[in-house]
Design goal:
This protein has about 90 residues and is α+β, with helices and mostly antiparallel strands. The chain is built from 3 helices and 2 strands, in the order αβαβα. It has a domain of about 60 residues.
Length: about 90
């Protein structure tokens, strides 16, 4: 999904996307560290769904939804950035 944002058809040296084997989703149980998942309530559905999958699949994961922001925090304003810092401090 994100690689499409940076695809440049005029760049012949651009690397092709690689498929991971086994797929990353099947390897979630290998992660054994606390994980903070931060999303915005204005994120696209795919990002929100991925966040839900990560929270469900990672032991000890915590998802925080920041109101009034989307995935690209630089475009969402500093208020959203400060709001996201608070859960990270207490995680």
């Amino acid at each position: 999904m994100t690689t499409r944002n940076f695809h440049r058809p005029d760049d012949e040296d651009s690397p092709e996307s690689l498929s991971l084997e086994p797929p990353t989703i099947a390897r979630l149980l290998e992660i054994h560290v606390p994980t903070l998942i931060i999303v915005g309530d204005e994120d696209v559905r795919d990002i929100l769904a991925i966040a839900d999958i990560l929270e469900a699949g990672l032991a000890g994961a915590k998802k925080v939804v920041i109101p009034g922001t989307a995935h690209q925090r630089a475009r969402s304003g500093q208020g959203a950035l400060r709001a996201g810092a608070s859960p990270a401090r207490t995680f």
